[in-house]
Amino acid sequence: MNDTADSLYAAREPIFPRRVYGKFRNLKWAILVVTLGVYYLTPWIRWDRGPNLPDQAVLVDLAGRRFYFFWIEIWPHEFYFVAGLLIMAGLGLFLFTSALGRVWCGYTCPQTVWTDLFILVERWIEGDRNARIKLHRAAWSLRKARLRLTKWTVWALIGLATGGAWVFYFADAPTLARDLVTLQAAPVAYGTIAVLTATTFIFGGFMREQVCIYMCPWPRIQGAMMDNDTLTVGYRDWRGEPRGKKSDPNAADCVDCNACVAVCPMGIDIRNGQQMECITCALCIDACDDVMGKLGRERGLIDYLAPSDAPREQAGEKPRPNWQHVLRPRTVLYTAIWTLIGAAMIYALFIRPEIELTVAPIRNPTYVTLADGSVRNTYELRLRNKHGTERMFGVHASGDIMWVLALEGSPYHAVPVPADETLRLRVYVTAPRASGSATASETPLRFWVEDLANGERASKDTVFNGTGAGS
Amino acid sequence: MDKPRVDELTGRETMGHEFDGIEELNTPMPRWWLWTFYATIIWGIGYTIAYPAWPMISGATAGLLGYSTRAEVAAQIDAHEAANAGLTGALLTQDMAAFDPQTDLHRYAVARGGAVFRAQCSQCHGAGAAGATGYPNLLDNDWLWGGTLEQIAYSIRHGIRNETDNDAHWTEMPAFGEILEPEEIAAIAEFIPTLPVSGGEGSGATLFADNCASCHGEDGTGDREQGAPNLADAIWLYGGDYDSLVETITYSRFGVMPAWGQRLSEADVRAVAAYVHGLGGGE
């Protein structure tokens, strides 16, 4: 670091995390397999929705403006479901961060998961920490070039699979896969894959912790979510200090073996206390527990702990149980809001009608006087048929028994609405000359649509404008 | 600059300056950040070379890629027209009397006609086609020259009382102020609201039968062959009150419309006709 005084910019110092075994490492492997599995495989799940609709379980159909999620189909005007999910995701992040620190960062963040995968590949090809450091320092040779090239190739293939999986969410996966291979897919598909391949390759292979430290806003925001009761990865310095060899009688539990530093993917020393760089991946806990186990000392020198317990533990008392740390007004409040929004969305999802109606009265002009003196209003109706089959919709208007209803281009009071579509329909309502609603300035009007197949109905209120002469 | 000092508490170097006892730790930016910054500058320079950017005395540098938003719009319009070529062809050959409102062709014609209407017709007839005094309301079911698709298309194509098209609808009502006495005009104006009655009593009825019925009909229901308005319905282009009627009879009225066949393509004329016909009053 001595040369940094001359330069305002520091080069990245490469980090070579050592392999580690333990319960948190196993948990992280499991999460890696599950999250990557979900990501790569979801587009290939099929879901039968009938003949007119796509059979992909999860599909964002941008051109058709539909979002399919198994049995749920979201139309653009129902985008509040997506907004609600995003709010729930945000609140969930708040909840977990206030309870368990940066668990999102340490376990499930794509940056962490892919970096883990990339480091795994790196270790398979180049060896563990010491071998990698040696290779890094060695001059370029045929062997180094071969190892590097192999590693980069595998990384690029993972990146390609990542970008490739992404585009399958936006089109029928088997069709798109065939088109991609035969070079017949849309340019935007290749462009998206290229960009995501490049970002995965660079972020997972070379940027790694730099993304967390310099690019991600969450490490900076998390300070507002955490307090002294947050369980987070920490070092029991009162147990560990002063450090020294096992044989040193003055030394405490920490033998300064540096295992916690060697395994850290962020390249920090957790014994320096909580740091912005720490993503709480808990690998140092595994590393230290391993050493403590071998030395026959109590595990948990590095552990999940709440800062508020430190004085109690230093005084020799037992720490408060975890549930007392987790259960506090803040987490209860986050959970309550999260549950409330979730419940409201589920409720909204289940009362969602299969047919819908919106009415836009045409107010330029507000009314038209016809040759016989009758007064006509025009409305533009949008009839939504969310069924997978064409339905016959009956249209009625109630409010004044004298009204005569006419549908554009149809002699009947019913129109066929194609499957999974919105039909725009002009509807004319005419009040006879000198009738009450013809001369009033406004008369309430309610439009009804009825699915003639099953009697399901929807209605919308609007007004009928008259000449105002009689009011 | 003072020699950098190592801060005891953090073990980090300071920047070597101090203000009122406050020192700054040296927290260098990552070097890749600098490279990214330079890359954006290079990208920016490349962008101004590739795309229109630098303002000149007239216009701007065109850019090596020759991109222009106007050209892009023009290309998109061409692409749409090419895609609609089949519909446009059908629109030109379709017998308008047999226009089926449930077809794609009709929807295309109405959409195209609506665009033309808003650009060319709305100045007089209003954006909602409700017209104004002297400019017919196209939403109602009263038509001066006929309300079938073909009749509407004819009126649009050739216009009304213009000097440019020999086939334009052309009739003119005489200014009866030069023919009748004011009392006679007043009598007619008082009689007109009682229409339709044929062969009524009184001087108004007699004067109407003698002077007006030849065009407007004995019962005042008008004559579309001559564009003579129906005086027996509820629709008045220039107002149906006594004063307006006196003014109309005294000085006469006649509206003028350009021959749009000379300004629009035949496809556009047919499309506007379909749009107007579909506004609610078409016959």
From TrEMBL, chain A:
The chain crosses the membrane at residues 27-45, 79-96, 152-171, 183-206, 332-350. Keywords: 4Fe-4S, Electron transport, Iron, Iron-sulfur, Membrane, Metal-binding, Transmembrane, Transmembrane helix, Transport. GO terms for cellular component: plasma membrane. One of its GO terms (molecular function) is 4 iron, 4 sulfur cluster binding. PROSITE patterns: 4FE4S_FER_1, 4FE4S_FER_2. It comes from the Bacteria. InterPro entries: 4Fe4S_Fe-S-bd, 4Fe4S_Fe_S_CS, Cyt_c_oxidase_cbb3_FixG, Electron_Trans/Redox, FixG_C, Ig-like_fold. It holds the Pfam family Fer4_5. Residues 245-273 form the 4Fe-4S ferredoxin-type domain. This is Type cbb3 cytochrome oxidase biogenesis protein CcoG. It comes from Candidatus Rhodobacter oscarellae.
UniProtKB/TrEMBL annotation, chain B:
GO terms for cellular component: plasma membrane. SUPFAM superfamilies: Cytochrome c (SSF46626). Keywords: Cell inner membrane, Cell membrane, Electron transport, Heme, Hydrogen ion transport, Ion transport, Iron, Membrane, Metal-binding, Oxidoreductase, Repeat, Respiratory chain, Transmembrane, Transmembrane helix, Transport. Heme c 1 binds at C121, C124, H125, M257. Pathway: Energy metabolism; oxidative phosphorylation. The chain crosses the membrane at residues 32-54. InterPro entries: CcoP_N (IPR032858), CcoP_N_sf (IPR038414), Cyt_c-like_dom (IPR009056), Cyt_c-like_dom_sf (IPR036909), Cyt_C_IC (IPR008168), Cyt_c_oxidase_cbb3_su3 (IPR004678), Cytochrome_c_Oxidase_Subunit (IPR050597). It is found in: Cell inner membrane. Its cofactor is heme c. One of its GO terms (molecular function) is iron ion binding. Residues 108-196, 199-280 form the Cytochrome c domain. GO terms for biological process: oxidative phosphorylation; proton transmembrane transport. Component of the cbb3-type cytochrome c oxidase. Belongs to the CcoP / FixP family. This is Cbb3-type cytochrome c oxidase subunit. It comes from Candidatus Rhodobacter oscarellae.
